[in-house]
From TrEMBL:
<dbReference type="Pfam" id="PF03831">
    <property type="entry name" value="YjdM"/>
</dbReference>
<feature type="domain" description="Protein YjdM N-terminal">
    <location>
        <begin position="4"/>
        <end position="31"/>
    </location>
</feature>
<dbReference type="InterPro" id="IPR013988">
    <property type="entry name" value="YjdM_C"/>
</dbReference>
<protein>
    <recommendedName>
        <fullName>Alkylphosphonate utilization protein</fullName>
    </recommendedName>
</protein>
<feature type="domain" description="Protein YjdM C-terminal">
    <location>
        <begin position="42"/>
        <end position="111"/>
    </location>
</feature>
<dbReference type="Pfam" id="PF08274">
    <property type="entry name" value="Zn_Ribbon_YjdM"/>
</dbReference>
<dbReference type="InterPro" id="IPR004624">
    <property type="entry name" value="YjdM"/>
</dbReference>
<dbReference type="InterPro" id="IPR013987">
    <property type="entry name" value="YjdM_N"/>
</dbReference>
<comment type="similarity">
    <text>Belongs to the YjdM family.</text>
</comment>
Length: 111
């Protein structure tokens, strides 16, 4: 099965190919695969991040509900880049001692 992009208009994941183009069954939007741009995630230094990278936190972070904060220099392994639901946090990761957490790309650097 092909890995087709989501609809750029309504974000529907059920896009199908119709010969030379792609069609969204929910909003009937027709588009070309070349029209869809891949989002590029960059760290605070401008390095490109990909899934599975290891990053280092560049500033101390207060964590809601935790008695301590995340210290500058904490290494986070095996990050997962996600489309931000809240428009801000685009890294999903697990931090030892804190658990699952969402981070911003602007506060990490590639290790």
């Amino acid at each position: 099965m092909e890995n087709l992009p989501d609809c750029p208009q309504c974000n529907c994941k059920y896009v199908y190919s119709d010969g030379s183009g792609l069609i969204c069954p929910e909003c009937n939007f027709e588009f070309q695969p070349s029209d869809v741009e891949e989002k590029v995630y960059k760290d605070s230094n401008g390095n490109i991040l990909v899934d599975g990278d290891t990053v280092i936190i560049t500033q101390n972070l207060k964590v809601k509900g935790a008695s301590s904060s995340l210290k500058k220099g904490t290494k986070v392994k095996n990050i997962r880049l996600v489309e931000p639901e809240d428009g801000v946090h685009d890294i999903s990761c697990k931090i030892p001692g804190f658990g699952a957490m969402m981070l911003k790309t602007s506060i990490v650097k590639k290790a």
